Amino acid sequence: MIITRTKKELHRYLKLIRDAEKSVGFVPTMGALHEGHLSLIRCSNNENNFTVVSIFVNPLQFNNPEDLEKYPRNEERDLDILLSAFCDIVFIPDIREIYPEKDERVFDFDGLDKVMEGKYREGHFNGVAQVVSKLFEIVKPDKAYFGRKDFQQVAIIKFLNKNYLSHLNIDIVTCDTIREADGLAMSSRNELLDSVQRKSASLISKTLKKYTKIYESISKRELIDKITREINKDKNLKVEYVDIVDDETLRTVDKIKPGKTTVCVAVYCGKVRLIDNMPF
Ligand code: AMP
User: Fold this and answer.
1) What average pLDDT score do residues 80-99 get?
2) How many whole angstroms from its chain centre is CA 171?
3) Which of 26, 175, 207, 239 is 20 to 30 A from 197 via CA?
4) CB within 8 A of 247, min separation 6: which ones?
5) Ligand 1 atom with the shortest distance to the CA of 178
6) What class, spelled out in words, does domain 188-275 have in CATH?
7) What SS3 state is found at 2?
């Protein structure tokens, strides 16, 4: 596995790959790697000759300085995991490599960023677009891999790719959410939970699973209320939002269409903010 920290060095290796007419899959991450990230790497390895993984904790997408400061970082452990996952090249830039100048771009997502996460995390998706567009321009992969765990992010990335980065011709591939044995969606932030909170957190996916199965007998409003109440019953959990949205537009729907509608939640578990979603 090759470890690169500069664009210059990365480009040297990418040129060799391109000259040999081999394909490149790209998995952007913020590190603190887990099985969710590994599933994206496996998918990329299956579909491409080479896989590039980036590790970069992007300050521009953190609306909360405390969240940025506490974000788990463990490069040594990440490198061991990447080696065992058959990653070919890992790119670990520092902030000046990505933002040599102040990045003041403002993206228009046609409203996709005005709901759910966008409503509660001001500027978050603009920051995501800033870093992903920089990374795409640097790596220029054939395909890039994202997890459905970050449901709204996938919609934003697809929009960004189509409307701002079409010259790069990148295919966006979405991979399923990987869960712990008790159903909790894997997340780097789970590391920040204590053992009691960790136990409570499994109620989030359990509740979504229950109500995505029995939705037909309940109105949408009632469904949102029931999910909210059931999660809030645990004193360690506090729902920030529950929304039931169209998979394409992310707009709140009145009528649930199986295969086209998803329930999305954000829940505080102590100070740790967790998100999850499940299709109907
Ligand atoms: P992050 O390091 O949190 O920025 O995530 C990097 C990529 O891994 C994103 O595309 C995430 O959606 C994806 N990812 C994170 N957690 C999971 C999971 N539990 N299952 C599948 N993909 C995930």
Assistant:
1) 98
2) 16
3) 175
4) 260, 261, 262, 279
5) 20
6) alpha beta
7) strand
Classify 27 as helix, strand or coil: strand
Amino acid making up residue 149: K
Question: Which pLDDT score is estimated for 218?
Answer: 87
CATH superfamily ID and name for 2-175: HUPs (3.40.50.620)
CA–CA separation, 107 and 104 (whole Å): 10
Provide the 8-state DSSP code for 150.
Answer: S
Report the nearest-CA residue for atom 8 of ligand 1. Answer: 37
State the distance from the centre of ligand 1 to the C-alpha of 178, rounded, in angstroms.
9
| pTM beyond cutoff 0.85 | yes
Hey, where are the domains in the chain? 2-175, 188-275
In angstroms, the CA 187 to CA 112 distance is: 23
Q: How many CB atoms lie within 10 A of CB 50?
A: 22
Average pLDDT over residues 85-106: 98
Q: Taking residues 205-210, report their average pLDDT.
A: 98
Q: What does the pLDDT read at residue 215?
A: 82
